[in-house]
Inverse folding.
């Protein structure tokens, strides 16, 4: 995924109200409010003074012209925009970077299923069989090299796991794909201390036959590419 415009650099003042971040731009020293497309806690990724990069929209109808895309943390570039993971995983699927999910005939996004939910990606094989794919963004790192999910309590995430298990019970395939938006992690685990309910829901879903994959990203100021497997420690 290439960014559509050159990113602008700045320093984080604060992230607040979940979807807002104040940033001082390097270009002219002005302080702006950017959209932070990330509903999680962003644990370890919201230190004042951190270097960040923003995209700027020329859409006059947008309330906030800037969107927070990337930050520097622990010496690495980290993607924080959770609007991108579904597209990044789609690119990885189309290019065969998740071999167990390759060979599909069609791919659709945001398809209604389950209990008033939408699946992130629905794959259909030539024989008509379906694979339901849920994507979760990951950028929490509390130990060097180890990505963890989730970074806050997520009742919605537990609900998605139960619905994936339901799809398996109906005779379909279902998969959870963790998209690790940081290049300094080569393995992934669950943060059961942060959300034990999610950890238990994950255990039940996996036992029911839900497949689990993790893929990591290469990140530059020009693009983000989901291009490498991440070892699962779950």
């Amino acid at each position: 995924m290439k960014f559509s415009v050159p990113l602008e650099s700045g320093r984080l003042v604060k992230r607040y109200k979940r979807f807002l971040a104040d940033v001082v731009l390097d270009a002219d020293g002005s302080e702006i409010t950017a959209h932070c497309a990330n509903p999680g806690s962003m644990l370890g990724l919201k230190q004042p003074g951190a270097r960040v990069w923003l995209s700027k929209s020329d859409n006059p109808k947008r309330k906030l012209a800037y969107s927070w895309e990337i930050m520097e943390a622990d010496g690495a570039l980290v993607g924080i925009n959770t609007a991108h993971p579904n597209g990044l995983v789609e690119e990885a699927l189309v290019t065969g970077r998740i071999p167990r999910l390759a060979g599909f005939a069609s791919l659709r996004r945001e398809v209604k299923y389950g209990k008033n939910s939408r699946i992130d990606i629905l794959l259909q094989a030539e024989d008509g069989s379906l694979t339901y794919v849920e994507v979760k963004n990951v950028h929490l790192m509390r130990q060097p090299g180890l990505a963890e999910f989730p970074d806050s309590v997520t009742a919605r995430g537990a609900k998605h796991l139960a619905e994936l298990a339901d799809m398996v019970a109906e005779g379909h395939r279902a998969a959870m794909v963790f998209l690790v938006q940081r290049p300094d992690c080569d393995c992934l685990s669950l943060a059961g201390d942060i959300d034990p309910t999610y950890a238990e829901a994950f255990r039940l879903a996996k036992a029911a036959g839900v497949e689990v994959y993790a893929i990591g990203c290469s990140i530059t100021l020009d693009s983000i590419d989901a291009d490498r497997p991440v070892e699962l420690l779950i």
